[in-house]
Amino acid sequence: MSIEISNIHKRFGSFLALEDINLSIPNGELTALLGPSGSGKTTLLRIIAGLESPDSGHIGFFGEDSTHKHTKDRQVGFVFQHYALFKHMSVFENVAFGLRVRPKKNRPSEEEIAHRVHHLLHMVQLQAMANRLPSELSGGQKQRVALARALAVEPKVLLLDEPFGALDAKVRQELRRWLRKLHDEINVTSVFVTHDQEEALEVSDKIVVMNQGKIEQVGTPEEVYDKPSNPFVYGFLGSVNLFHARVNEGSLYLGGTSLQTLDESFKNQEEASLFVRPHEVLIESSDSRGSGIKARILTARSLGARVRVELESIEEGKFIEADIDKESWNQLKKENPSTVFVRFLGAKIYSQNDTWSHYVI
Prior knowledge:
elongated, 9 helices, six-stranded mixed beta sheet, six-stranded antiparallel beta sheet, 26% helix
């Protein structure tokens, strides 16, 4: 493992920022620390970097205890959200800075510095910008300079704090793809902080979902999205419909509608939370199976090849969001029903006895 994090605790006054954090970050992987504001992800990143000290616990780098090592001795590169470039220096000099300030005995020659900087600028596709000042660059270009500067010192670990948070949506998307490609080329162990679920799912090898100073789940993007360990992870990763259901005589009821027969792990009269993603919602003009929820369509918005439909259940007045293909929507419009019936193609139930059950209706 590249980084071993053991029993980390951190308080800021009365605020508990991190509680009993244990995490292994494999060599060469791109790991995302994902969570809402205040979840502790940036504090954990700064502790890994040595910019903050834990109250207790240990940080190991490549088999060595680095808990009390200074940042400069950890061989980490750090990329900040707001670039932190030197405004009076050219792009070339910004990237070269970390090499020039090394002690003389460890400092590369000017020829070596020039070679390394030009190589990095080529990697980040900014070789033509070497003599420009940061003020002459776009936000995306500035972030690539910041990344090149972090890589110039040949770090063992690359740390990125909300690296694309200050950029607009289109530039963020382009840089996400670019970062993934670059990471595969350089194969340096990388950890980045984000609150953007789509960013974490698209870019990372592994996702660490955090909430209120604790780790909720660690897994691949597919694992945390398809097999969330608890309701928080399910609700945080992507859009979701949440319904409050009940179990009666072995069946799951939403309002007066019986949706599914359940196994014995669900107790009679038990309350349950039902999670359904919008793409798992099916809208029909008739209740062909007798398990549909009667609803009315409120709005529909075309999003390329998909249509986002907002509905309201007639019995409970519950808001339902569906994401259906355009062909299904066109068929619905042709039939023009005054009311429709909603079924779920897949869902997860979370009950009070902490039982997860996946079923298909």
